[in-house]
Amino acid sequence: MNMKIAFVGKGGSGKTTLSSLFVRHLAATGAPVVAIDADINQHLGAALGLDEAEAAALPALGDHLPLIKEYLRGTNPRIASAETMIKTTPPGEGSRLLRVREDNPVYDACAREVELDGGAVRLMVTGPFTDADLGVACYHSKTGAVELFLNHLVDGPEEYVVVDMTAGSDSFASGLFTRFDMTFLVAEPTRKGVSVHRQYREYARDFGVVLRVVGNKVQGRDDVDFLRAETGDDLLVTVGHSDWVRAMEKGRPPRFEFLEDANRRALRTLQVAADATYELRDWHRYTRQMAHFHLKNATAWGNERTGADLAAQIDPGFVLGEDVTATA
Ligand SMILES: Nc1ncnc2c1ncn2[C@@H]1O[C@H](COP(=O)(O)OP(=O)(O)OP(=O)(O)O)[C@@H](O)[C@H]1O
Ligand SMILES: [Mg+2]
């Protein structure tokens, strides 16, 4: 199955840890994976085993927005220039689309191969967030590159895009949170841990976002009961403390096959749940939602910012999809 999967949750809940474990799990199955670090604290590279120098040398998506926009715009006549392309500008006839497996200038500039047990994955990072990035919708938003990437991606069978992401107002305003087949909300068994779930659930419901809770740092029956009481049927699985993770954090990663059995089973559960959403996929709805959020952002700030009527960028006859030739 091809899947776009987000890990969200409050700071420190374990988004990065679980994203990285899931990426390692997928890589071990031999599946092609693009891993994207869009978290405030950029730690996914380290969690995938890069040392400090390697992680620091990763190119930042945020630094390559002009290149990304220029490439994706292609010959789309509705997008006059890269300057008028905002993070929600949808693809249309003439746009260049992206695939998980191909080589393209976006990967050349922004992705790096990371060797894991079982296979290599592509890693892309937004780059560190500044205070300005955390505000409201913003032309230079770091996650804008991720949104453009996802909105132009036609993922084929047996491919995965895994995004380590902050559950912030930015992703709600831009529509980024609707770009996933599955959203895993990582929650510790604490009041703060589950509070993000309540907010996220409201947004998710309105947009048909599939949301499941992954309990983390769960120590016993009482923790599970608490998460069940607070998050109900959304609770998918729980993960306990992992000595494997601790060893990895000490810079001594054991081989992935030595991950604790219970945690390995949890990762399989995540994959099964993610794969099962494939049937719910609806490219028409996916494309409609792009237009919805694009219009919202155009009126809120984009038109003024670019001096153009961004509504005209929407190609009414275009539907993104695996068989994109059917959209002509
Ligand atoms: N299941 C686990 N077993 C052992 N350690 C864990 C586990 N989950 C998380 N941790 C540890 O907890 C800390 C926070 O986890 P992590 O960095 O993954 O959270 P995060 O949600 O990405 O945080 P941030 O908001 O800072 O990006 C890390 O030191 C991580 O190693
Ligand atoms: Mg993190």
UniProtKB/TrEMBL annotation:
GO BP annotations, alphabetical order: negative regulation of cell division
Say which domain of life the source belongs to. Answer: Bacteria
In this entry, which stretches build a coiled coil? none
Sample GO molecular function, one term: ATP hydrolysis activity
Q: What are the UniProt keywords, alphabetically?
A: ATP-binding, Nucleotide-binding
Q: Which InterPro entries match?
A: CobQ/CobB/MinD/ParA_Nub-bd_dom, P-loop_NTPase, ParA/MinD_ATPase
Q: Where is the CobQ/CobB/MinD/ParA nucleotide binding domain?
A: 9-221
Q: Output this protein's name.
A: ATP-binding protein
Q: Which organism is it from?
A: Streptomyces naganishii JCM 4654
